[in-house]
Amino acid sequence: MSTKSRFQRDQITTGNPAFSMSRSTLETAFYGNNVRKVIDLKEVYEMAKNTCGTIITDMPVYCPEKIGLPDDAKILLFNDGTTVGRFAGARVILGEKGVDEAEIAKVLREAVYNTRYKNMLHTESYIGLDTDFIVKANLLIPETYENTLYNWLLNFQYINDFYNDMFANSKPVGNEPDIFILSDPDFSHPKFPDGLAYFDPEHNCACLLGLRYFGEHKKGTLTLAWSIANRNGYASCHGGLKRMIRKDGQKHVMGVFGLSGSGKSTITHAKHNGKYDVTVLHDDAYIISSENGSTVALEPSYFDKTQDYPLTSEDNKYLITAQNCGATIDADGKLVLVTEDIRNGNGRAIKSKLWAANRVDKMDEPINTIVWLMKDNTLPPVIKIEDPTLASVMGATLATKRTSAEKIAEGVDKNALVFEPYANPFRTYALSEDYEKFKYLFEKRGVQCFIINTGFFLDKKIPKEVTIEIIENIVDETAEFKEFGPFTGFKTMDVEGFSPDFSNKEYTELVIKSMNNRLNYLDSLEEVKGGRDALPEAAKKAIENVIK
User: Are residues 224 and 261 in the same domain?
Assistant: First the structure.
């Protein structure tokens, strides 16, 4: 099996990754006499439906029997309070500079002790949907949070006979134990007034305290699954991936990397007006094999924003649950959702696997193209990079802006440009490991690299229609690229209305400033986290060469 659930008695000892201070503290809580195990999805649906505060809409779930739900299942809505996004400030990762496990363990023990006053619910799911990669995860959470439990089972793969057989027949993934996550959204601690998301990635365990938002549970689980994948020969990806087959039969597998709101879901699910036969792997979480370039999806469903989907949108047909949205009674007397972020920012919904007409959980065809989705207004709509080192380091300095998916600390400018390496703020291992894996894909596997700007070029917004057309030009191999003015290593194509003026000194200085900001960021990595995320000197040299 991919991960291990049981160990011989002589293996229950120091040195086994299933038995550390943090891991043992958290796992022990799962075996209290106040814990009830529930893994049947239909039972969990009924529990969520009957939880205080759940809003049972009059909107039916589409083809519920195909996703393991009762025939009469309705879309359930549950809302949080003040916080409706992830809070990066709550994340504490064992192994990073300044993190003392013995001190954190005191907080964990207190949190576990406090669970004795509550009835707790334990459930299991699978992350990874192929025999190449499938790991088991456990979640423990108090009663009254049945909606979180339900969403977690919908977002990942709930337990059934088909996936039990897949797990039993899967490839072993090192000596990795199952994932264990303890969540208590009501627990508070004076050292962590805004909550604590603690991760011990080497031992596949985590604790989420004082955090109600479901996205913390989704990304917290993925954090550990991505760590397992990284240790076992995969590049961990926060993005979307699709295969497009042209009319002449030529296949093109493209991965797009970006934070929430960057357009990765829009691009992944674009149908291209029937121009291609489109197959979707996933729009948020997958892994790439360094060995053969194949890809595996980690989740069956989609946790998507509701901002761009009015109630009448055809896409809403595939909703299963919604979070942090409004509700109202329509003209027919039906209780329906209010979407488009009218109530608050970052309204969310889980959409079923059926949303993508052609959906697979693994693609054997190796990936052809990687696209870094950025919001850097010095860059035109598309840049092509052919040097593997530059291609990888530009992913490591992926420029973007914060979105409503995140809770922003007071005093932080949410409109400021930030760097989020490989669009993955959930990394628990050294950045150089991602850098080397992506460099390998570009250098040894011949993967193409592009930067696509989905924000503004200077002060002009780049429409999504322009972005889709660029992608089609890449797939059709009709895009004609030329040198990016005086800047070495970048190439661009003519896009009407978005042509860089290299005779304008002010513009070229903006580009130089953007590249220098990247160099400064790379320098800063040598100071933070004890230099754990520092990249090789060749990475900085590649950017320096652009502006020489």
Answer: no
- 169 belongs to a structural domain: yes
Give the DSSP per-residue string, 87-134: -GGGEEEBTBTT--HHHHHHHHHHHHHHGGGS-EEEEEEEEEEETTEE
- Assign residue 123 the CATH number of its domain: 3.40.449.10
Distance between CA atoms of residues 483 and 380, nearest Å: 13
Q: pLDDT band at 410, cuts 50/70/90? A: low
| pLDDT tens by residue, 232-252 | 999 999 999 999 999 999 999
The set of long-range contacts for 139-143, using a CB threshold of 8 Å and a minimum separation of 24, is 139/181, 139/183, 139/217, 139/221, 140/29, 140/30, 140/35, 140/115, 140/180, 140/181, 140/182, 140/183, 141/182, 141/183, 141/184, 141/185, 142/115, 142/118, 142/184, 142/185, 142/186, 143/118, 143/119
Query: In angstroms, rounded to a whole number, what is the distance separating the alpha carbons of residues 407 and 305?
Result: 15
Number of domains in the chain: 2
Does 276 score more than 80 pLDDT? yes
Helix/strand/coil for 268: helix
Q: Quote the CA–CA distance of 352 and 76 in Å, as a whole number.
A: 13
- By DSSP bridging, strand 133-142 and strand 120-130 are antiparallel
How does residue 293 score in pLDDT terms, banded at 50, 70 and 90?
A: very high
Share of the chain above pLDDT 90, in %: 91
Q: Whose CA is closest to 235, among 126, 359, 367, 130?
A: 367
**Is pLDDT at 527 greater than 80 in this prediction?**
yes
pLDDT of residue 548: 85
Domain identity same for 269 and 390: yes
The span from the CA of 41 to the CA of 131, in Å, is 22
138 and 278 together in one domain: no
Q: List the domain range (segments joined by +) for residue 112.
A: 9-231
Mean pLDDT of the chain: 95
Residue 329 lies in a domain: no
> In this structure, are 17 and 90 located in the same domain?
yes
The strand pairing partners of 140, in sequence order, are: 122, 182
Above 90 in pLDDT, residue 134?
A: yes
The DSSP code for 292 is T
Pairing assessment for the beta strands 382-385 and 417-419 based on DSSP bridges:
unpaired
**Element of type H or E holding 453:** strand 448-453
Residue type, 41: L
Burial class (CB in 10 A: 0-12, 13-18, 19+), 363: buried
The verdict on 434 and 521 lying in the same domain is yes
- Both 486 and 537 in one domain: the answer is yes
pTM for the predicted model, two decimal places:
0.94
Q: Is residue 352 part of a domain?
A: no
Where is the domain boundary, 231, 253, 275? 231
